[in-house]
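This section describes the prediction task in plain terms. A model, or a person checking by hand, is given the sequence of a single protein chain and must write out its three-dimensional structure as a string of tokens. No templates, partner chains or ligands are provided. The sample shown here is typical of the held-out split.
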Amino acid sequence: MAGWTALTVTSIAIDDVLWPAVMLWQGPIAGGITMSCVALLGNLILIWAYDKIKKDVLAFEALRELTEQEQTGFGKRLLVKFIKAGRVPAFISISFYDPFLSVIYMRKGVGKYTMESRDWGYFGLAMIIACVGWTFWWQIVITVGKAVWSIWA
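The expected answer:
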């Protein structure tokens, strides 16, 4: 619970408070670049802390253990098939929410609290998805907000 709480607070602070404020202040290009740098730093700190703690505070290790072991029951085998079939869509949607989570989700091996070259590739792709997505989203919200404001003002 503490892991998800810390992650949610960090995510709200960066994605929902700072991102639109900086884009309003600096504009979509400079604001998007600035916030991409902030997000990169924040996610690198989260990865470092997660790997340093070496505890499954997000339950992804338990999920990975379930998918990497041979399952005997029909229900567990079916669950593992659904999880494996949905890894790409899950990666994309989790990346938009938080690149840190998507990298932890995509890691291979149970209890491996280190970043491998494969993980860094996923991290880079997740950062692009998230930063372009958040910048695009907030630019739409800001543009619509300004249009509505000009009508009422």
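For orientation: The chain has a mean pLDDT of 84.
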